[in-house]
Amino acid sequence: MNNAVAGFSKLSKKEKISWIANEYFSNPEEALAIIRNYWNSDEKLQQLHDEFIENTITNLYIPLGVAPNFLINGKYKTIPMAIEESSVVAAASKSAKYWATRGGFKATVINTEKIGQVHFTYNGDSQKLADFFTNIKPKFFSDTQSITKNMQQRGGGILNIELRDKRNLLENYFQLHATFETKDSMGANFINSCLEQFATTLKTEAQNAGLDLEVVMSILSNYVPNCIVKAEVSCNVEDLTEKHIPNPHDFAARFVQAVQIAEVEPFRAVTHNKGIMNGVDAVILATGNDFRAVEAGVHAYAARNGQYSSLSHAKIENGIFTFSLEIPLALGTVGGLTSLHPLVKLCLEILEKPSAEELMQIVAVAGLAQNFAALRSLTTTGIQEGHMKMHLNNIINQFEATDEERNLIKIHFKKNVVSHSAVVEFIQNLRK
Ligand code: MEV
């Protein structure tokens, strides 16, 4: 079979689907039925989703859940989370409840600066380039006025533009390093439009001045180390009760140790931070934000001191246990999917229409809560007990259990340890 195809994007949706079904399936009708099964019966809604991307054939669902009882800066929030991993929402809800009776979560936005760069090469005297840059700097602002006007009205805009000499890294390499405030929008389009105009201005002015300068590319940076939010919980060590460890001081000490391991050990740090991102990404997805951008930026931040390390920290000082998380988050609550996707709009309403700064706080809290739940399990019972309990449903579904079988399985595994093989064996015995 030759799986290459010419002009695929020009085919109709029906033709695209037929091609896929015939090309890759021995039973094309069965494949078509699955694809159609996930179409929305509301044709307009389906069309909306079709048009988000190119070559849409159907929709891939992931569950949208909610974790209630999050006390954040004194106000209760119900956090929407879109995620396929079975234990995440349950863990978030459990942490929310735990901390609601211990003062809740405190969250603070430290700063909100976004970054973009024009990368270029220049072959010549660097002082001449520096003087040229100083001369034309006001022009970068005036040439972008039509782009920045609305953003300025909302209190944002271009903060600064610097010329950076990067010749220690690459021959003739320089940058315009620009910083932005984009208020409630994530700002990618705004920043990239400004940068492309900077590049045009730079090229034109360099030509007029007879400089040997060539623009390579202009793009925002998803690394935003000055767009930081901090989330924190704290309580008296005595109040850090945990049913599996009778003495709260022992639980606190073990918890702090678990965080210290993630601070010094990259193999552990990656998994530790993955647990944080379970919470972060679920809210990012539910609110229509760009989880790839957030992931890339967060992990770069975790490695900012030269070694990949924990994003969260824990300490015991003067009888107080404190657990905190600091992460860079470039988020938007206007623009992009936030006004296009009906479920994203609904999630933002559940969050009571937050500003981007409020959303940063909520997301960081979800990350910290998730991390707390993971470390609490890891330092007490281990995670498998909870994970497998949640995973039980997936195994039951995989075996297409009847309602009666389902009941018997649930009763049995209330008292017995869940493992994939134990469930399979139990089902097979039931079916004998
Ligand atoms: C699983 O999705 C996340 C954990 O592995 C996080 C961690 O180990 O801290 C439980």
Automatic annotation (TrEMBL):
<dbReference type="GO" id="GO:0004420">
    <property type="term" value="F:hydroxymethylglutaryl-CoA reductase (NADPH) activity"/>
</dbReference>
<comment type="pathway">
    <text>Metabolic intermediate metabolism; (R)-mevalonate degradation; (S)-3-hydroxy-3-methylglutaryl-CoA from (R)-mevalonate: step 1/1.</text>
</comment>
<dbReference type="GO" id="GO:0015936">
    <property type="term" value="P:coenzyme A metabolic process"/>
</dbReference>
<protein>
    <recommendedName>
        <fullName>3-hydroxy-3-methylglutaryl coenzyme A reductase</fullName>
        <ecNumber>1.1.1.88</ecNumber>
    </recommendedName>
</protein>
<keyword id="KW-0520">NAD</keyword>
<dbReference type="InterPro" id="IPR004553">
    <property type="entry name" value="HMG_CoA_Rdtase_bac-typ"/>
</dbReference>
<dbReference type="GO" id="GO:0140643">
    <property type="term" value="F:hydroxymethylglutaryl-CoA reductase (NADH) activity"/>
</dbReference>
<comment type="similarity">
    <text>Belongs to the HMG-CoA reductase family.</text>
</comment>
<keyword id="KW-0560">Oxidoreductase</keyword>
<dbReference type="InterPro" id="IPR009023">
    <property type="entry name" value="HMG_CoA_Rdtase_NAD(P)-bd_sf"/>
</dbReference>
<dbReference type="Pfam" id="PF00368">
    <property type="entry name" value="HMG-CoA_red"/>
</dbReference>
<dbReference type="InterPro" id="IPR002202">
    <property type="entry name" value="HMG_CoA_Rdtase"/>
</dbReference>
<dbReference type="InterPro" id="IPR023074">
    <property type="entry name" value="HMG_CoA_Rdtase_cat_sf"/>
</dbReference>
<dbReference type="InterPro" id="IPR009029">
    <property type="entry name" value="HMG_CoA_Rdtase_sub-bd_dom_sf"/>
</dbReference>
